[in-house]
Write a structure and sequence with these properties.
alpha/beta, Ribosomal Protein L4, Chain: A, 2 domains, 6 strands, elongated
Length: 207
């Protein structure tokens, strides 16, 4: 399938490129995207919540009152779970929330995410990713041409210095190297821009 290649600065057509239909022409499946995003978000969870058990709570080991004759319930320690300040029964422990997902499925998720954007006309190809000067106003004007709430630019190699300096205060513009391409970032942005060089790397990787 053929699509226009745009000039990044003014979003005007400057040529054409043929997209691989096995990567960009699939009928997107929400179940595949959902599984890959769940795997991705689970992997980034810290899992550092922790409560103290009865053995970890500091306090006396003395029996608080007599076993019988006081009218109160039997109690052997003030550190038990039913006492204020005592240990927590079955509380959270430090653990990993990560679960496995094979490489073929993760690759398939990327294909369906890119296909979904292409089907919705939210995927754009640009011939370069640079501006003439490191000016935020210049980059803001460039981003406005794409008419999107938020924008993800996928580039190849190193981030251009001018763009890197100018993009510091533009919150609706995110940039991602081709090596870090992932389903979650693709799906959560309204429009995705891919440079021509990054497109070649992506097609080689997912073919």
């Amino acid at each position: 399938m053929k699509v226009n290649v745009l000039n990044f600065v003014d979003a005007t057509a400057s040529g054409e490129v043929t997209l691989n239909k096995d990567i960009f022409g699939l009928e997107a499946r929400e179940d595949i995207l959902h599984r890959v995003i769940r795997w991705q978000l689970a992997k980034r969870r810290l899992g550092t919540r922790k409560t103290k058990t009865i053995s970890e709570v500091s306090g006396t080991t003395k029996k608080p009152h007599a076993q019988k004759g006081t009218g109160r319930a039997r109690l052997g320690s003030l550190r038990v779970v039913q006492c204020r300040g005592g240990g927590i029964a079955h509380g959270p422990v430090v653990r990993s929330h990560e679960h496995s997902l094979n490489k073929k499925f993760r690759k398939l998720g990327l294909k369906h995410a890119l296909s979904a954007k292409q089907t919705a006309n939210e995927l754009l190809i640009v011939n370069n990713f640079d501006i003439d000067a490191p000016k935020t106003a210049l980059l803001t004007k460039t981003v406005a041409h794409y008419n999107a709430r938020n924008l993800l630019v996928i580039y190849d190699g190193e981030l251009p210095v001018n763009v890197g300096l100018a993009a510091c205060n533009i919150h609706k513009l995110d940039m991602l190297s081709e090596a870090g391409l992932n389903v979650y970032d693709i799906v959560r942005h309204e429009k995705v821009i891919i440079t021509a060089d990054a497109l070649k790397k992506i097609e080689e990787r997912l073919a």
